[in-house]
Design a protein that fits this description.
This protein is an alpha+beta fold and about 400 residues long. Helix 1 packs across helix 10, helix 2 (about 35-50) crosses helix 4 and helix 7 crosses helix 9. The strands form 3 sheets. A 6-stranded mixed beta sheet has the order 5-6-7-2-13-12, with helices on both faces. The protein has a 6-stranded mixed beta sheet with strand order 8-15-14-11-9-10, sandwiched between helices. Strands 1-4-3 form a 3-stranded antiparallel beta sheet, with no helix packed on it. It has helices at about 5-15, 35-50, 85-95, 130-145, 160, 200-215, 220-235, 250-255, 280-295, 300-315, 315-330, 390-400; strands at about 5, 25-30, 55-60, 65-70, 75-80, 105-115, 115-125, 195-200, 245-250, 265-270, 335-340, 345, 350-360, 370-375, 380-385. The chain folds into 2 domains: about 5-185, Chloramphenicol acetyltransferase-like domain (Chloramphenicol Acetyltransferase, 2-Layer Sandwich), CATH 3.30.559; about 195-400, Chloramphenicol Acetyltransferase (2-Layer Sandwich). It contains 12 helices and 15 strands. The longest helix is centred in the middle third of the chain and has 16 residues, at about 220-235.
């Protein structure tokens, strides 16, 4: 055994047993290298990050732990396709495909090869990582593929450990009777995921960043405003009720963590009341930033971790934890903005073009999810749902572009 799962890791392990909530990221490159180089790169990646060689077992009921499993390489599926829309289809397929937590590794890869391009998709169980983990995994893999040597990292500590949040559960007070159960026992039938993507040009991205600074907000605040106002414009269900926007907040800066593949984030819920209140784009963007800023302090992150640890310590089981999610964490849209990719674009024969993600579905069939990353100066947006997407993303993206103009956006 390497260590027990932290509180949030445990919650996501439980939730993933009712609905697939693992995340995906994708890196698009110009150029090709042999498939054997990708296989060798994945092997080096697995040797670098300890949690890429684990499965999860219960030392007692509802007391999961990471166990190292030798001889279990990261699986790589190779697809040949010239159609650039193949990426959306592969992301959809990977989000739909489940993980068996009892079998290592809890990561898999897909390589899409076109005429002059390569795209690597990573699907990762959420108990071992987050969207920013996906950024560093992509970078490390590209470095290995380009011939660089990767150094090994130590086993990362749980988010709660670093935030000094303790669990009330110990081996001694855990329930005494374990039940043998299959992973599929609690699976909820869900509609298939659908994904669209849009990208701002480097000039549009720069204009947006400058305008956000001038308006006293952030790109994430602008994203929240764009999705709320676009949804209010085209989705009838969003008009008469409050819109709940769940933002994922990284704890890495507060904890001084960079390269590790581990789960280091909390959540913040922004609730926008009905359409009779805030309708100005920049006012809503500033409101979102102010609320998020208050949630990013170390004390606020610790309180969020206590809340999630409490969910784990409730020992509500798979179905009970899912009910807690439905009652306390339901939202209309979840937004994960990974920010500016913290590395360059040159990796030997490969040139990084775009990064997409991270994206995961944490809710039911009515939830929308957005994954955003900025690489090579361009902001890339994924929007997903388990229902038709219509022109939601197109309208939200146009709002971001229009927001850089002098006029305000009104709904």
């Amino acid at each position: 055994m390497l260590r027990h799962l932290g509180g949030f890791e445990t919650v996501l392990w439980l939730l993933d047993q009712t609905r697939s909530i693992h995340f995906v990221t994708a890196a698009e490159m110009q150029g090709h290298v042999p498939v054997s180089r990708w296989e060798e790169g994945l092997q080096a990646l697995q040797q670098r990050h300890p949690l890429l060689s684990v499965c999860i077992r219960e030392t007692a009921p509802l007391r999961p732990a990471f166990y190292r499993a030798e001889g279990r390489p990261i699986p790589l599926r190779v697809v040949q396709d010239e159609d650039e829309s193949r990426l959306e289809r592969e992301l959809e397929a990977e989000l739909e495909s489940t993980f068996d937590f009892s079998i290592a590794p809890l990561l898999r890869a897909v390589l899409i090869e076109g005429k002059d391009r390569s795209t690597i998709v990573l699907a990762v169980h959420h108990s071992i990582g987050d969207g920013i983990s996906g950024l560093y995994l992509s970078r490390d893999l590209l470095q290995a593929v380009s011939g660089q040597t990767l150094s090994s990292l130590p086993l990362p500590a749980a988010n709660e450990t670093l935030l000094e949040v303790t669990s009330t559960i110990t081996g001694a007070d855990a329930p005494s009777e374990a039940k043998e159960r299959a992973v599929e026992d609690y699976r909820v039938r869900q509609a298939l995921p659908r994904i669209q993507r849009q990208q701002l040009s480097p000039a549009e991205t720069t204009s947006l960043m400058l305008r956000c600074k001038k308006e006293g907000t952030s790109v994430h605040g602008a994203l929240c405003a764009a999705f709320v106002l676009a949804g209010r414009q085209i989705l009838p269900d969003w008009m008469p009720k409050p819109v709940r926007v769940q933002s994922l907040i990284s704890t890495r800066k507060a904890l001084n963590i960079k390269d590790d593949c581990c789960l280091y984030f909390g959540t913040h819920m922004l609730t926008v009341e009905n359409s009779g209140t805030v309708t100005d784009f920049w006012e809503l963007a500033r409101q979102a930033k102010q609320q998020l800023a208050a949630s990013e302090t170390k004390q606020a992150l610790r309180e969020n971790a206590k809340l999630l640890q409490g969910v784990a310590d409730a020992r509500a089981g798979v179905l009970g934890t899912d009910q807690i999610r439905l009652e306390g964490f339901a939202n209309e849209i979840q937004i994960s903005n990974l920010g500016i990719v913290p590395y360059g674009s040159s990796f030997g024969a490969l040139q990084l073009r775009s990064v997409w993600g991270g994206m995961s579905f944490s809710g039911g069939n009515e939830q929308y999810v957005a994954g955003i990353a900025t690489a090579n100066g361009s902001l890339s947006i994924l929007l997903g749902a388990r229902k038709p997407l219509g022109n939601f993303l197109a309208v939200a993206t146009q709002m971001l572009k229009t927001a850089t103009e002098p006029e305000k956006i009104l709904v």
